[in-house]
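Hey all, quick one. A colleague (J.T.) asked me to put the zinc ion job into the tracker so the inputs and the structure tokens live in one place instead of scattered across chat threads. No bug as far as I know, just bookkeeping. Sequence used:
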Amino acid sequence: MAVVNVRVLIDGPSELVFDYAVPMGLDVRPGCRVRVPLRKKSATGTVLAVVEAEQMDFALRELESLIDPEPLITPVLLRTGEWIADYYGCGFETVIRSLLPEAVRSEENSAKTRRIAVLEAAPEEAVLEKLAKRAPRQHAILSLILHAPDMRMAVADLGEGSAAALKGMEKAGLLKLEIEEVRRDPDADGVDEILESQPLTLNPEQQRALDAILASVEEPSPKPILLLGVTGSGKTEVYLQAARHVIDRGKTVLVLVPEISLTPQTVRRFKARFAAMQDQVAVLHSNLSQGERFDEWHRIRKGVARIVIGARSAVFAPLPDLGLILVDEEHENTYKQESVPRYHGRDVAVLRAAFEKCVIVLGSATPSLESWQNTQAGKYELLRLDQRADGQAMPLVRIVDMRLEAAKHKGAPAILSDKLRTALEQRLEKGEQSILFLNRRGFARSLQCPKCGHVCQCPHCSVALTYHRTDERLVCHVCGHQAIVPRKCPECKDPAIILQGYGTQKVEEVMAKVLPQAKIARIDADAMRRKHALRDTLNAFKSHKIDILIGTQMIAKGLHFPNVTLVGILNADLGLHVPDFRAGERTFQLITQVAGRAGRGELEGEVIVQTFTPHSPSIQYARRHDFDGFSEQEMEFRRQFSFPPFAHCAVLTSRSNHERRAEFTLQTLHLRLAEDLPPGITLGEVLPSPLVRSHGQFRFQITLRSHRARPLSRHVQAVLARTSLPEDVTVVFDMDALSFS
Ligand code: ADP
Ligand code: ZN
């Protein structure tokens, strides 16, 4: 007789997994919550899998009971979880931890309840009069409830010591006492009231896009849709109207944004459009308390909350009857989780949509080349919005050649070009606002000549070589090619070739000197540590208490300020020379997105881009807002070198406090990986990571590439499973890696 056992993930920080026998007659399925014996106590856990055992294993203990009769994880989410474990090569229990957040699994959390007193019907006058004379306290309580909404009041609100009176009144049949669940409302702390917004009349382009999305909603297994719309083209309005349609048909909607705190305006627009059904909108912030997260999760699962807005992990929101998934700014790196399980939120969303058979819309002004390639291959449907929604022109982008500036000022290149400075002065005079953007991506430093702009590149991979201070070498982080550090520029022979960079603080300092009359604020991770600092600064900027906003990547996303007519990008090429084949793509995306913050109102916008490499394609195509041109040449380069989207690229990293052991471990793994390497996989060399030392640990890495993902991650998993690692070495496998640091 086949015996069924279950594998259970025990709640709590130690994340233990044990098998238990199932008592007769109990229907236990994966995703069920169970109570099990653990040592001498009892514990709660989640069923990971039902495993068929060959024969009765008497050593196995029986589980005690089933907590919920139904599994907490839906079959589709369970399937999604299995896919993640296989594709990203990680343990299933780590995936379950993401599927069922700790707040939901933990025994400590439960629904919050309160006692309420309810009047089923208004008492007769005679009764009230009698009570007024004989029992004034009861009379007072009764009149309070009588005038409360729905004739219901929380016992706690009826004042100290009313318990005895209430009991007596219940006995006398005057009222009823009930238990009610209360929601811990994350928005309850009086964030200003949101007025309902009305749908706008769509322009023809938007209407076509909406029609196409709605046509897909009718299909049994729709294709994913890529919505490529220039900045300000009104993608959000299309999302809102599509969501409305799906909600009206009784289905639910999932909205993914790159980061809740950095996209306050998008979240607000959803809240405003669905203000009339506000308690059906759940916003999954990272700063929800455990209790709030528990409540929101259960509201979603029960179908009470029908629109869920959240970052990456919201892709696991247990929405029933999912009708539409929207992924805003689908190209953003923040969708990739940089800890185990290292899944990509957008890709998991696409997969979930396929399992749910619902429509998914990926939106961006600068789509990832992965998604773009999927439209070219016919896997995704492409919809376009090529005009700004309100008929405004795209901002005019001017390039300032910082090599000339450096020559003009002799010596250290200036932070602010004359052109940008004049433009800022003009905006101040006219009472218009400006944004200054500083690219701080990439710590890995490359060598650049300030005179001719030349950057030392790998001859084999066409990525910038990384400067290694410790051994004074330039190294290619894709193939391992090494070069000595030149003493003068290989191109123009100038000896001034330098490593250089400056931060936002420095810019703020300089600005205060150059334009003392301007009100300036800075947005970056350092300045925004205080709670609400970001929101307050953005509000101050919106109400024009600030003239010039200086910021990093934090201000590149989805902000909409109609009075901003000038955007300055200070060091456009800083991200261009990092050891990453996506450097060009990221630079193009960043410039296009930042430039898109200008001229979003009545007034025309201007963008000034400062760069040492004015002719680089990323900068030139961004200047012309030309995604097609950019993608065409970039795809050619990717194809030629077999980079994504033409291959999957994974990174295996080792970390240790002991440099030799980190390196040796990875070399051992390299040998084993090479042994029976499946065909089609390219195995790179063991190299020090671009960031060789981080948090006191030494890091080494291997890059692997393959046309097919699964054989690659399975091969690596198999090798890792049969290799015992030294205790002080950590090995991390990152499938479809976005970061090569
Ligand atoms: P995107 O998300 O593509 O960057 P937005 O949705 O933010 O663009 O739209 C930019 C601006 O245009 C917003 O102020 C929005 O209210 C406005 N807008 C969008 N659609 C329309 C429309 N059909 N008619 C008028 N204004 C619109
Ligand atoms: Zn190389």
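Adding what we noticed when we looked at it: The mean pLDDT is 87. The chain is about 30% helix and 20% strand.
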